[in-house]
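RECORD TYPE: inverse folding
INPUT: structure tokens
STRUCTURE:
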């Protein structure tokens, strides 16, 4: 893999060498490359109109499976800052390791991952801490805008803490606390709001569970009176639908926000998730 990435970097460099002008436009903006949507969202919120953010993962694609094109590798090389989460996207890790570490920001350095679970952004309090760390990093890249960067970060911090308050109030009085998911992506959210995540598969969304594993989850869900089996927007619902049929429940989306559709944002999807959880858990 490392040799492949190195070869692609060379291809990208040669392609750029044949082009007229610099790789990045001389527009006075800070050019940020983000590994996937939540990092794009935070970069844009904190950077404001002083940053141009390029998301490496196209809408509707699984960020774990990202394979970088030569043009994207060249963009990583020329960016003012690369915002990524080490361990989540192997192709990005490989590319970063072959480039200058001084222009990278690993969000895992702000909020340490728990049990190798990368989905830290699903906890708005942890995402607020990441935004604060990114603000410090962007302020070092663009010192002329440091004051405004920190103001925007403070505003985002307030919005994320308001969202945390909505979750706390919305999930305070519920008939059930078990959240049954097809993929173990909601550990941070569950820990923050005193929920119990029960997953059919592990952290790898491509993992195929054995028949006994599916039966065990179905048995537990039936015993606990679970009414909803959740699946993700970017993953086939078949597994969740199978378990739901087994216990007479319904299948519904709980979105890990690894990407969004047009018109959606982190906040709109998080609030849709809250509504889905309240319905599934019988909250008052």
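DESIGNED SEQUENCE:
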């Amino acid at each position: 893999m490392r040799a492949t990435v190195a070869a692609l970097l060379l291809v990208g460099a040669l392609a750029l060498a044949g082009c007229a002008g610099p790789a990045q436009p001389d527009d006075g903006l800070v050019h940020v490359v983000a590994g996937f949507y939540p990092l794009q969202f935070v970069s844009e919120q904190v950077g404001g109109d002083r940053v141009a953010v390029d998301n490496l993962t196209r809408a509707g694609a699984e960020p774990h499976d990202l394979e970088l094109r030569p043009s994207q590798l060249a963009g990583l090389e020329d960016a003012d800052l690369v915002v990524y989460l080490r361990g989540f996207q192997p192709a990005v890790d490989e590319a970063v390791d072959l480039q200058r570490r001084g222009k990278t920001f690993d969000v895992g350095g702000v909020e340490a991952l728990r049990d190798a679970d990368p989905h830290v952004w699903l906890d708005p309090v942890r995402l607020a801490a990441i935004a604060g760390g990114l603000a410090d990093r962007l302020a070092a890249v663009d010192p002329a805008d440091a004051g405004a960067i920190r103001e925007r970060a403070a505003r985002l911090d307030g919005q994320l803490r308001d969202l945390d308050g909505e979750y706390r109030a919305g999930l305070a009085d519920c008939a059930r606390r078990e959240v049954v998911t097809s993929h173990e992506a909601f550990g941070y959210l569950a820990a923050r709001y005193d929920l119990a995540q029960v997953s059919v598969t592990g952290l790898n969304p491509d993992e195929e569970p054995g028949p006994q594993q599916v039966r065990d989850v179905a048995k537990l869900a039936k015993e606990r009176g679970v009414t909803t089996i959740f699946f993700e927007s970017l993953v086939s619902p078949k597994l969740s639908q199978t378990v739901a049929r087994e216990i007479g429940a319904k299948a519904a989306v709980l979105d890990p926000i690894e990407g969004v559709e047009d018109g959606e944002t982190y906040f709109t999807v998080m609030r849709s998730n809250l509504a889905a959880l309240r319905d599934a858990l019988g909250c008052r």
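NOTES: The domain at 2-167 is CATH 3.40.50.1980 (Rossmann fold).
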